[in-house]
Amino acid sequence: MLMDYILQSKQEATTSVSYVPRESSKAAESFRQAASFALQPDGTPDLCQNSQNGEEDLARKPEPDKRVARSLERMVSGVANYVSVARDTGKLLRQSSSQLLESREQLEGEADAGILDLYSEKKTPPAPPVRSHSKESLALSMSKTVAMTEALLEPRSDAAKPAKEQWAAAGAEQRTGGRTAGGGGLEEPERKGRKSQEDEKVLKVADAKKTFEKPKPSEGKAATPPASTARKDTMRRVVRQSKFRHVFGQAVKNDQCYDDIRVSRVTWDSSFCAVNPRFVAIIVDASGGGAFLVLPLHKTGRIDKSYPTVCGHTGPVLDIDWCPHNDQVIASGSEDCTVMVWQIPENGLTLSLTEPVVVLEGHSKRVGIVAWHPTARNVLLSAGCDNAIIIWNVGTGEALINLDDMHVDMIYNVSWNRNGSLICTASKDKKVRVIDPRKQEIVAEKEKTHEGARPMRAIFLADGNIFTTGFSRMSERQLALWNPKNMEEPIALHEMDTSNGVLLPFYDPDTNIIYLCGKGDSSIRYFEITDESPYVHYLNTFSSKEPQRGMGFMPKRGLDVNKCEIARFFKLHERKCEPIIMTVPRKSDLFQDDLYPDTAGPEAALEAEEWFEGKNADPLLISLKHGYIPGKNRDLKVVKKNILDNKPAANKKSDLINAPKKAADASNTQNEAKLDEILKELKSIKDTITNQDERISKLEQQMAKIAD
């Protein structure tokens, strides 16, 4: 029907067309007269000539409407294109059906024969599988998509012009009563030529199938491993095996924090906090001098403003450090150029403490660093802004080693090695030095460890290497690992970010994990140090909302082994101290031997005199399997030498060896006098007990009489 209508419309367009002008004021009258217009010589209807009268009437001649003619021609040509597309699409479908029948053998029986038969009979594409898509179905879909796309785009190309001419010829034959065989209007040679041309354009099913097939290994060559195996090998190379990969941090609840604490505002890059298994010490603001709080760990909650403090310094306190061999002894350095050692009562402070056990005077400028020896008893190191390092024997109150010519600029930090035989320092001149304090010589030195001008930090690791933090020339924070035996190039160097806070490193020698806490940051990054490249492995980051003013690090013996706790920090806010617990998730409740190897205990491996004589010893280790129970610490006793026998601190090795002997001789008389005082005190106590026993017996007799 559509074909007949289109042919009839075109035939009428070539003879005469009835037309009603739109702009004529006499349109109705013209329509009633059924005016017909003859064709012009170029084949278009003459819209201005009245065929009924056979002559021009200038009064009734309308303006020619060319838009109507153009629209009519475009409609006719569009319908011709549609018929050509429909005819070509049917031919493509028949060709695809024949190709599907030929490709059934190429698919090697993998395709569903029922679906192909259905497709060949109905000449419609089969429905895709519901749950799975095989490679054959994908190949069929691809071939049909390409064929339909090219068929739809073909009428717009140059190949559509012959089709239009053939359609015109077919229309002429139809008007004369004749139709071409096959209904397509194309002769047999032309049909074969177009078929061969379309065969080159249509994507064959076999070619599409090859794109989905896996390459087969050739004979004589080893087969490539499966993709799953290769992926596992890649994952093994990318993901490093470590039991600390899933360490996570968690802050305690608010009721377990220490609130309402006025943390010090001194501009000094120290941690402002020190922790041991019994107490937490925090440097606070104090009017008229320097002070720090000492709180038992269990005293959480709001701290009263009138809580007693340690306030013997006349200037702000810059650094504090707990003695590793006595949990009740703490040292402090201050802007008043002194170092003080304090004895804290076993149950904490009940009154403010103003009298230290000993005052160590020897620096000419403020003291910003104090550090106890890791294995020798009563050996304390201090460093000040006078660029001098002094090592003290706290038991006698003497400065036995004075390193005042090693540094030419301010010292940022000092760190002991594992057995206390060496120290490493970082200073403002961008140098890291490894020093033997008893020989008073520099063992190793590195210039421009970090090229930035901001403060650096350097600490010893358990294997003897040195870990440093600093800044690059572009103010990017860096961390580096160095070998003291060859400090020309770092073992590893990593850049972190562009923050300006100084990175404070805290090291756990048992697990080889380093925690980096930047002052002013709100996060703690932790890394694992191994012997495998890149040597410094990033683990994770603990982030919080509030920035940190300082940080305290709990020794390993103060952790809860039942909760797999491997580290505990005490983060200082502006008005609060917040504990943060680092945990390794484990399902078992048993003691984890791999997380808790034997750690350094509270017993000293050496006495101060032995270390000054040249002996070295590693820390005495204890097991945490049954937990750590703090024992009773003996009091710190300072026996000062006779003032008349005092001599300036010597720097020669012979004087260092003879100094402990002289101190022992001078202390004999003092010990005898102290022994007499103790005996007298014991006698008075026994007398008091005897009197009280008599009094108790009399009271018991009176009670017996009253009861009778």
From TrEMBL:
SMART domains reported for this sequence: DUF1899 (SM01166), DUF1900 (SM01167), WD40 (SM00320)
WD repeats: from-to residues: 310-352, 360-402, 404-445
Keyword Thylakoid: no
Biased composition (Polar residues): 8-18
Keywords of the record: Coiled coil, Repeat, WD repeat
One Pfam family recorded for the sequence: DUF1899
UniProt KW Coiled coil keyword: yes
UniProt domain DUF1899: residue ranges: 237-301
Protein name: Coronin
Organism of derivation: Accipiter nisus (Eurasian sparrowhawk)
Lineage, broadest ranks: Eukaryota, Metazoa, Chordata, Craniata, Vertebrata
